[in-house]
Specification:
This protein is of the alpha/beta class. The longest helix has 27 residues, at about 210-235. The structure holds adenosine-5'-diphosphate (ADP) and magnesium ion.
């Protein structure tokens, strides 16, 4: 049997490629270069030396090869062409290299030329041994994103081989290519891997070259197609019709000590309409910290209960879940509704009792932490799932709760978040999510004044806290975040508490942190709510959801260590009552650029949307959403800020391709999705 021309890549290489996500030929082909090297020209040595400072490629014959021992062991190779001589210096080298670069051998070397003590030299150039008149490449040489054990030559070879094997069918129909003035697929990909010498390199680097536009469009189209399909699949599932709005809804509205804001009424209408449909709602309720999402959630739950179903409310922390439980139980139990409480820290006996109430249907509403998604929890008739601070849960956790429906019906899902998602992100990442926004705060809130203060003025701040407390105001003192060590964070919190208790002997100082038992935590929070504690020293456990309207001063220590949205969440704990509120951000100088920008943003605005926008600017979308969020793995090429126009086109074209679900479009859609998503579509189903 004749040997195959190109032997298959060895196992190890395949494994290493797989680690980069490069499994199929198409994966390899869509692994596009980071940058390029120009190896198409050879510069005479003399000219290269005169130019200096630039990367150049020279070619010459080795005239000297020696190993120097001082100042350290190194290989010194001198090459020469007609114009001059150049030293190639290798600090790390193998014995084989010494032989390879023997006198008389012709070498092509490429890197920056430095002017060292001994004149012009190249340090560790990339080089290869060539014959005289060896042809030069006619296109730029790609440099790929790489991984462990994968050299550029290995990657280049694997990609070049894939290019020969792959099916180049253009998955975007000609009419759309014309409409969007797009390059064809194959020439676009080829150009990106092997750009001709005269290519507009700037456009390549900026990803504004038409070849890039084609890649971005294809990628966005795949994303939009797959999101829209997921949306259809959801609509094909059955969900309970929650039509009734009766005793519970009316009772609850009547019991509220306030009337709903216009924004609350509007989002409630949107939710109510969804709940009546026979397919599962998937709605995100966005509203800034303090905008009043809880009561909207409770009213949605009331609709489920009125319709004979159960509702579940899940919150990310025990403190937050307990607050919800207390508040909602106080509203609902007088109306004859049993509310169950379920968290991991319950005693076994209580947990069993709660589970039984949920399973029998006696509990119409269940509030808790992720304990709600345990296998042991069975619902009698779950109609609505509410997830507070949804971004703190993983995709899988939300899915589990959604799978707890009965009679083959999927419960409706309402997610809540105070972290607003900018429009572009919402459009691309959440195309299968309806979004309701509460864009108005309840009346009577006073604006929060924020100031940044150097840590070395801590004494003045303590004075201020003292004065405020004497005026009857309550104070949060937030301890520094120590990400590396929970133990250290705890220690710092305890120390801060002790120092403050000592510095403020006439005040009651309390401490709450993540390691306390739930009952202890609750006791401290109760004392604070009852204004028996003046100053509450807290770790970030208070970040989400804590609601004590009388608290109007907040001090955040080492504010430079917190992220923007975290600072915004924390600050949202004050400014809930009518007293003018103040937030003092203590920082340790000198501040880095990013920290400076964050503190400045905090001083300038209290608008959660504006803060999210700036956060996006500072951090970029990937990190903004966290790796666990759906869709993130899909966008490699398109940039949501600069490519907004493409997103909009891709969305419209996806809609038109899916319009007729029968006929040839299905094949087009399938082929395009297979090319661009492979197995990654699952990300979008949640
Ligand atoms: P968040 O949206 O941050 O979860 P909450 O639901 O905790 O906000 O509400 C913040 C505070 O505002 C609570 O004390 C709540 O009772 C109160 N509140 C909610 N809606 C209104 C309203 N329409 N008028 C007055 N106060 C309200
Ligand atoms: Mg809340």
């Amino acid at each position: 049997m004749p040997a195959p021309k190109t032997p298959p890549a060895p196992k190890t290489t395949q494994t290493r490629l797989a680690k980069l996500g490069l499994r199929s030929d198409m994966d390899l082909i869509l692994h596009l270069p980071l940058r390029y090297e120009d190896e198409t020209k050879i510069v005479p040595i003399r000219e290269a030396c005169l130019r200096g400072g630039h990367v150049s490629q020279v070619e010459g014959v080795v005239i000297k090869n020696e190993i120097a021992l001082k100042p350290r062991r190194q290989l010194l190779v001198t090459i020469a062409d007609d114009s001059g001589e150049l030293l190639l210096r290798f600090m790390n080298f193998y014995g084989s290299q010494v032989k390879q670069l023997a006198e008389g051998v012709r070498v092509r070397a490429r890197t920056e030329i430095k002017h060292g003590f001994f004149g012009a030299e190249m340090v560790h150039p990339t080089y290869k041994v060539v014959n005289e008149n060896a042809p030069l490449p006619t296109s730029l040489t790609p440099v790929y994103p790489s991984g462990e054990g994968l050299s550029q030559p290995i990657l280049r070879r694997a990609i070049a081989e894939a290019m020969r094997r792959v099916d180049w069918t253009d998955t975007v129909p000609p009419a759309i290519r014309r409409q969007m003035d797009l390059m064809d697929f194959q020439p676009a990909v080829k150009l990106l891997h092997y750009p001709p010498v005269d290519v507009d390199e700037y456009a390549l680097m900026e990803k504004s070259h038409p070849a890039w536009t084609r890649m971005k469009f294809d990628e966005l189209l795949a994303q939009q197609l797959s999101l829209k399909r997921a949306q259809r699949a959801r609509r094909d599932k059955g969900a309970p019709h929650l039509r009734a709005m009766g005793q519970m809804t009316e009772g609850l509205l009547g019991a509220l000590p306030f009337s709903l804001t216009g924004a609350q009424q509007r989002v409630l209408q949107e939710i109510r309409a969804d709940l009546r449909e026979g397919y599962p709602m998937q709605r995100l309720l966005q509203g800034d910290v303090g905008s009043g999402k809880t009561v909207v959630a409770a009213l949605a739950a009331a609709q489920a209960i009125d319709s004979g179903y159960q509702a579940a409310l899940m919150a990310p922390t025990e403190i937050l879940a307990e607050q919800h439980f207390r508040k909602i139980a106080a509203w609902m139990e007088p109306l004859g509704v049993k509310v169950a409480w379920l968290t991991g820290s319950l005693k076994k006996k209580d947990k069993t009792a709660a589970n039984e109430m949920v399973e029998s249907g006696e509990a119409r509403l269940v509030v808790g932490t992720h304990a709600l998604i345990q296998d042991t929890v069975q619902f009698a008739k779950l109609g609505l799932v509410i997830v507070d601070e949804q971004h703190r849960f993983g995709v899988g956790q939300r899915l589990t709760l959604r799978n707890k429906g009965s009679e083959g019906l999927v419960p409706h899902q309402l997610m809540m978040s105070a972290t607003p998602i900018p429009r572009t992100l919402a459009m691309t990442y959440y195309a299968d999510l309806e979004v309701s926004v509460i864009d108005e705060l309840p009346p009577g809130r006073s604006p929060i004044v924020t100031r940044a203060i150097d840590q070395n003025r801590r004494d003045e701040v303590i004075e201020r806290v003292h004065a405020a407390a004497l005026e009857g105001r309550q104070v949060y003192w937030v301890c520094p975040l120590i990400e590396e060590s929970e133990a250290l964070q705890l220690q710092t919190a305890t120390e801060t508490y002790e120092t403050l208790a000592e510095a403020l002997p006439d005040l009651q100082v309390g401490l709450v942190h993540g390691r306390m038992k739930p009952a202890e935590k609750q006791a401290v929070m109760d004392a604070f709510t009852a204004a028996e504690v003046h100053v509450l020293v807290a770790t970030t456990v208070i970040e989400v959801g804590v609601d004590v309207p009388n608290a109007s001063l907040m001090v955040i220590e080492h504010a430079e260590r917190f992220g923007l949205s975290q600072l915004h969440q924390l600050r949202g704990r004050v400014g809930r009552g009518s007293a003018a509120s103040v937030c003092l951000l203590l920082y340790q100088s000198p501040l880095g650029q990013v920290a400076k920008q964050r503190l400045l943003t905090m001083r300038e605005t209290t608008d959660g949307f504006e803060i999210a926008r700036r956060d996006l600017e500072i951090r970029g979308p990937g990190e903004f959403l966290g790796a666990r969020q759906s869709g993130q793995a899909m966008l490699r090429f398109a940039d949501l800020e600069t490519d907004q126009w493409l997103v909009e086109h891709a969305r419209d074209i996806a809609a038109s391709l899916l319009e007729s679900e029968t006929g040839p479009n299905v094949e087009i859609v399938d082929a395009h999705l297979a090319r661009w998503l492979g197995g990654r579509e699952e990300f979008l189903k949640v």
